[in-house]
Amino acid sequence: MTTDFLQQLSELSRANLVEAQPEFGGILFKIIRDGQAIEQFCEDSTSATEALILAERWRRLKAAEARLYTHGGGR
Q1: Which residues are within 8 A (CB) of 39 and not within 5 positions of it... i.e. 6 or more apart?
Q2: How far is Cα 47 from Cα 53, in angstroms, rounded to an integer?
Q3: pTM of the entire predicted model
Q4: What is the pLDDT of residue 44?
Q5: Cys-Cys link to 5, which of 12, 23, 25, 44 (CB 3.0-4.6 A)?
Q6: CB 43 within 8 A of CB 36
Q7: Helix 3-12 crosses helix 48-70 at what angle (to 10 degrees)?
């Protein structure tokens, strides 16, 4: 993966990921940041599958955290 691509994924991790989908030549992330819906395109066609896997893992992690806090198991 390119450094720019990794930086973009790092930036996305600070936002709430809504959706990730492959697009020609990369992947399009739909995210919520500071209450605003935005789209971010990460250009790296060889890493689109990896990015989708990372995005899904991130979504599952956030969902698990939300369930934990909802059920009183959080800090």
Answers
A1: 28, 29, 30, 31
A2: 10
A3: 0.40
A4: 64
A5: 44
A6: no
A7: 20
| Cβ atoms 5, 47 nearer than 8 A | yes
pLDDT at 73 over 60: no
The residue with tokens 């896997």 is 53
CA distances from 12 to 39, 47, 58 (A): 10, 15, 10
Amino acid at 66: A
Sheet holding 26-33, edge to edge: 16-23, 26-33, 36-43
CA-CA-CA-CA torsion sign (41, 46, 49, 50)? negative
Q: Scanning the structure block, which residue is given the tokens 């990015």?
A: 51
